[in-house]
Design brief:
The chain has 195 residues and is of the alpha+beta class. It comes from Corymbia citriodora subsp. variegata.
Length: 195
């Protein structure tokens, strides 16, 4: 039906590595895969296998769960989008998470999970948040980090005039030039903004 790959961490893994809860739900216990270092697994590629046909109104939704937390929606694949690389935004262990969609329920709400899990569920496409919700969060997070970098740079050149901050007129040009030079010197620099 589906397979997954954890980039730079695994070979393709098929559905047999997941525990099947019922006809439409599967769970991968991260303890058996990476132990307590589950939060170091930052992304996952999920793909439909060639021989499997998912109805056009259905999707395979992916969720993550830290110990003691509810499942959090990460994204989905459909027949028209048969594969996706999804970030895995692990919630704080034991904390309440901001859930984008309806939380996946695979256990009793009273039973706190003891290990981190990845859940896969067959669901109605219309009931899910945008399939690109994860991409939207990445872009928003990157924009915030770039803005923070600009603010910190500007702040180091600020003067105060009453209740206003005063910066040199060429501050944006200087910041952008420094930003570009750093990106050229260090190819991984821009990746730090996306994390």
């Amino acid at each position: 039906m589906f397979g997954v790959v954890f980039p730079n961490r695994s070979f393709p893994i098929d559905i047999s590595a997941f525990a099947q809860i019922d006809t439409f739900h599967w769970v991968l216990d991260m303890n058996t895969f990476v132990g307590e270092a589950y939060d170091q697994v930052r992304e996952m590629c999920i793909f439909l296998l060639n021989g499997f046909t998912l109805p056009p109104d259905k999707a395979l939704a992916v969720y993550v769960q830290s110990p003691g937390s509810p499942f959090v929606y990460c994204g989905a694949v459909t027949v028209s989008r048969p594969s996706a690389v999804l970030p895995l935004p692990w919630p704080e262990p034991g904390g309440d998470a901001a859930v984008a969609g309806q939380p996946l329920q695979l256990t009793s709400p009273d039973a706190a999970p003891l290990t981190a899990k990845i859940g896969v569920s067959v669901e109605e496409v219309g009931a899910l948040p945008s399939l690109d919700a994860a991409a939207e969060r990445r872009v928003e997070r990157m924009a915030m980090r770039v803005g923070e970098n600009l603010f910190n740079f500007m702040q180091s050149f600020c003067g105060v005039d009453g209740s206003k901050l005063v910066v040199p007129t060429d501050i944006l040009d200087r910041w952008f030039k420094k930003f570009q030079e750093r990106a050229k010197r260090d190819p991984d620099y821009l990746k730090t903004f996306a994390l």
